[in-house]
């Protein structure tokens, strides 16, 4: 070719110059474990379902929850949301209202009649579950989906366990509970109510290959209080239970609740709704050391419940109590001061914790009981092969969420045990810390305030206190998720690479690095909003 | 006065600060997020790791290419951008591009615009571009003439605050106290002198041309919006883009965006626009930071912290930022 004056070479493209050879470190896309997922006792993949919800694909979001938890509408109401407590967004403005979005999704599923996918191929194995509480229902759901035939036996007249007989209706409306239980039973789970199992081995001999025990802890713990004959003392578990299946108890005008846990709050708030003019919680330590969750204490106070910190009940008589003032010692333990006072009370409700009725396990070889709880291994199996246990009857925090998590975990191990295969948990990703995020790219967007029922109505009715989000603010709330540690396709790496060395793949496929040209500057990793790019030394 | 030339804030998952988002209407995504962007400068160029100028030029030219439907010619001054993109016989340019001399890029651009006018090609637009050396110092006379005649050219200065290509010598745009090869960190007033240098955006405004704007490589959306606005106008327009130079500023290559962001957030580099010589918009500081945070990331200011902390100099630099904040209403 005839070239212009003084030109000896063809003009070429700089594409011939593979600048990737300059690199001494390389960007790598990673997935990290977000704190919400790490903190969920039910093992939900929260970030993933928020990802679907952000796009307005609520059904996909709900189905993602249902992978782990068959009770989203219940959980969205009663879970103490440890996910929110560890949410990285709290360091920016406020934590994402994960539970309120979950509730919205759960309610949406009930409203629209979404159903879980039908069970897998039948295995021919039969599993007996004792107890239709959160743990038993969760295990039944997962085992059925894994292809096993499940029978649940419960001592109570209706399924739900503590969700029905422990949690007041103003926190969990029964039609919501019923709808979610019905959906589990429709998968083919056989439920036998009013059928207390008194001997587990005998019950299993009726053709069951494995059993999952989830009887809960329904016996209210008593404390010795010298009391006159006329003193009216009952326990919180019985009080809450009688709200569902018995005659409403006569508590009188002045009700004292003894204890500082969530059950104490439930009992006091229930007493208030039953017409008590005064509901007084007596607790031997102070508010900081109270086991009840902050929002429960706050809601109780709003409803007019009165707290009496640093006090124990010395004795109970007709119409009045003698309290002793306490003082916390250096270790935070309450010590008596000898200072006494009178407190008028028509009745005393003891909320001092619960114990499990384990009589059905008498004489089971290998099975160990310690401190009134059943010992289980990491696979939720008791010392007796084929008998697994979970929920409130094993040592763990006693919440619905933990119970649901136990049910899922046990179901997966029971499945592996029945099939004779081992079950290796997938290795966990590295945690996604707040420091790994680049928060510049997130809009300032404070949490959506969830509406609540007027305080005055809360004092007299059992209508639900926490109200739900509507679609608009549920979407807003979902979009507040920072997607900690996992790419959500914001295009920053693609847009901000000075060497055009990031390749944008199809939507949902994320990106790839063009290592022929990437110089390893690290801008993509530094400017990734969610910390989903790591810089690694160049392999030599 | 509009708050910024950026697009209206619309809440989606990450606000409007990131380049794009899978959920965002394609219309609202940045040009840089577009898989079909023109990549005016393609890969394989020889800019240093983390080069702010390579990035800033691609942002600006890709936005101009989109605004003009690809009907665009660039005239480039001598400088890093020219050197790293065209080591003969390679070229990174995927658009009509020509280079002449260090000081005459505005005049060359004027000539191209005049030729297009003579040919009746009003659809083809012209961009002149160069670094701060070619713009603020060597090409200033040609640029002033281009402004005076109101030639139909958008001139873009990629300001990295010194002659980086030839080995980091001071330019008229080098900030006070910065160390360069010709303003060493020695003596009682180390680094570049206070009270010298030229503020070219203000000089351009004094010419009362239709549009003058500043931007940084850290604010992609603001930069793109300003280019788009400029390409919607005729006559002489001037865009001054602060681009981090990891080599000359002695900062981490990965911190290119962060450093440019801090230049704006500290108030040292005011981001504004002016129409017909009158200030018409400022980009407000979103998270105000002391200048020290900006200076600390850069080795060219290390002498302000080691071996002894120069509180006196830091105070003077902070005063410059405070003055900008007051003068342009940045908070």
Detailed description of the structure:
The complex is a heterodimer of chains A (540) and B (331). With 540 residues, chain A is α/β, with parallel strands linked by helices. The radius of gyration of chain A is 28 Å and the shape is globular. The longest helix of chain A is centred in the C-terminal third of the chain and has 20 residues, at 400-419. Chain A folds into four domains: 14-31 and 487-537, Alpha-Beta Plaits; 35-114 and 433-479, Orthogonal Bundle (Fumarate Reductase Iron-sulfur Protein, Chain B, domain 2), CATH 1.10.1060; 126-218 and 356-419, FAD/NAD(P)-binding domain (3-Layer(bba) Sandwich); 220-353, FAD/NAD(P)-binding domain (3-Layer(bba) Sandwich). The model of chain A has no long low-confidence stretch (mean pLDDT 91). Chain A has helices at 35-39, 46-54, 58-66, 72-78, 82-86, 98-112, 134-145, 162-165, 174-185, 200-204, 236-245, 262-273, 294-302, 400-419, 455-458, 471-479, 492-496, 523-527, and strands at 12-13, 25-29, 126-130, 149-153, 190-192, 210-213, 219-220, 233-235, 254-258, 278-282, 306-308, 311-317, 320-328, 334-344, 347-350, 354-355, 369-370, 373-374, 387-389, 502-504, 511-513, 533-537. Chain A has 18 helices and 22 strands. By secondary structure, chain B is of the alpha/beta class. Chain B has a single domain, classed as Thiamin diphosphate (ThDP)-binding fold, Pyr/PP domains (Rossmann fold). Chain B contains eleven helices and nine strands. Chain B has helices at 52-67, 80-85, 105-118, 132-138, 140-148, 200-206, 220-231, 246-249, 256-265, 291-296, 311-328; strands at 72-76, 90-91, 97-99, 125-131, 154-159, 211-216, 237-242, 272-275, 278-282. In chain B, strands 3-1-4-5-7-6-8-9 form an eight-stranded mixed sheet, sandwiched between helices. In chain B, helix 1 (52-67) packs across helix 7 (220-231) and helix 3 (105-118) packs parallel to helix 5. Chain B is globular, with a radius of gyration of 19 Å. The two termini of chain B are 14 Å apart. The interface between A and B is large, with 52 and 51 residues. Strand 1 (12-13) of chain A pairs parallel with strand 2 (90-91) of chain B, so a sheet runs across the interface.
